[in-house]
Amino acid sequence: MRKQIPNIPFQMLLRGANAVGYTNYPDNVVYKFCELSVQCGMDIFRVFDSLNYLPNLIVGMEAAGKAGGVVEAAISYTGDLSDPSRTKYNLKYYLNLADELVKAGTHIICIKDMAGLLKPAAARILISALRDKYPDLPIHIHTHDTAGAGVASMLACAESGADVVDVAVDSMSGMTSQPSMGAMVATLQGSKLDTGLDLKNVK
Asked: Which fold has domain 11-201?
């Protein structure tokens, strides 16, 4: 793929100390995996831990960074930070975690909304706070359209300062996939966030 597509960055998901599996591997295995991945053309490593367990995240971040990859540390989103009665996963929790990932040297911060829980109101609160705290750090948002609110949430993220939001081609979008690319492109047409993409070419 790299030979055929030389000029577009490739991104992969790295489960921290679990690499691309569902069990912990010795650190040297994770480091070697990242080294070989970069040699084969991988560019960006989205590093996450489903429980936001910092030691696991840092193993993956250090392995990807040492290999020469771009480190995109991901915060797994859960709860509803727009609801003040839910105090465990509140704004302070996410900002503190972002602080630790920035200290650990991430190049990009990612919000990984794997269950499609990020509502537009919560997205505005979270992304605005991250953008205010880290004005120069790229912010990347990933969601699944499980609840059907993905386009609205990604639009809120974009308007609040996110640099990148993940979408899927229309025929493969929605439900447990990502929000519709066509819907996002059409929604942003004529706005200051216009993608510049020709809707006829978005399929």
From this structure: TIM Barrel (3.20.20)
